[in-house]
């Protein structure tokens, strides 16, 4: 049985995850070494590389644990309550004791390291919505009983994240939740009603936005929209980062300047190791490097959605959809920002950009996805084997064997 379980894991998915992580680690070092070496408080070219490596090690421990732990246990009432109240408690701790960075009080400091609870809230929302809607499949079209209560919880979570303020993460959580809700099995009429409900929630948030407009609509956030609409008109301030992203991508061409040979990372592209790391990849490794990353990310997303379709368990299927949609949404927002398709949001590129909380969360999610794949493949192979045995097994009838 143990051998069957080991064989049931999707190793192509695991290989793709490992390739992205180790490639990202190399690019974090390449893109951050100049900034880290020249920074007066750091003065160590391997500073961000070492921190990312440590986060990756912790993340892979979490991935292995999540691979082994049965995903169906997350839907149990006790563990689900712990996940929900734990995420709410972490957000409340941030509101009271959180550290501020980039105009947002969204960090909890653990010694010299910090964690961003809002990142882990994404997984909490995915697990909660998947578990609740899976349990309510028999009456999923009952809007008041089945649909609205989980949505109200999601709205509350988004509110706590927004007051940090971290509008980008709140937006991502709402999009992930929306994807799970749309795939939960409800009818088209309820979906239309939910759209009206969403518009109502937006209208209710307007007074809060007006009340907190000075802290939410800061000069920095307004400048991102100005830089997005016309970066060359604001090339000295709001459009500076986006223009240098264009320069980096244009300089790389098809084959790139060579690994480690980026010019833009020498202070032209601010903090290139975070949300603009793809620009450095394009400059150093060219179009081939960009396509390599996009292909692996698309492969993981595709495998997750394919797994959701194969999974006969509603909870496992919705888990796979939620995790895959999170990966797809973050990838689109990051690439859309550095290409000027959408305003810059500061969202990291999954598995590639520097970010400890993001890396640990993503690897935890991948561990859950691998566990779902193991159950799906094991059930498929075991049933097939059982059916074959039953067909070939002789039946005793009237004191004679008949086949």
Task: Characterize the structure shown.
It comes from Litchfieldia luteola. InterPro entries: Cell_cycle_FtsW-rel_CS (IPR018365), FtsW/RodA (IPR001182). The chain has 403 residues and is mainly α. The protein has one domain (9-381). The protein is 70% helix and 5% strand. It has 14 helices and five strands. The protein has helices at residues 2-8, 11-38, 47-68, 77-97, 117-135, 143-162, 167-182, 188-211, 213-216, 219-229, 240-252, 277-310, 314-338, 356-392, and strands at residues 99-101, 104-110, 113-115, 395-397, 400-402. Strands 1-2-3 form a three-stranded antiparallel β-sheet, with helices on one face. It has a two-stranded antiparallel ribbon with strand order 4-5. A hairpin with a 2-residue loop joins strand 2 and strand 3 (113-115). Helix 2 (11-38) runs antiparallel to helix 3, helix 4 packs antiparallel against helix 5 (117-135) and helix 5 runs parallel beside helix 14 (356-392). The model is unreliable at 393-403 (pLDDT under 50).
What overall geometry do the principal axes of the alpha carbons give? globular
Placed side by side, the strands forming the largest sheet appear as 1-2-3
The number of helical runs is 14
What helical percentage do the residues reach? 55-70%
Beta-strand segment tally: 5
The helix/strand class is: mainly alpha
Largest sheet, in brief, is:
3 strands, antiparallel
Which spans of ≥5 residues are poorly predicted at pLDDT below 50?
A: 393-403
Terminal residue distance:
28 Å
Main location: membrane
Enzyme class: transferase
Organism: Litchfieldia luteola
Family: Belongs to the SEDS family. FtsW subfamily.
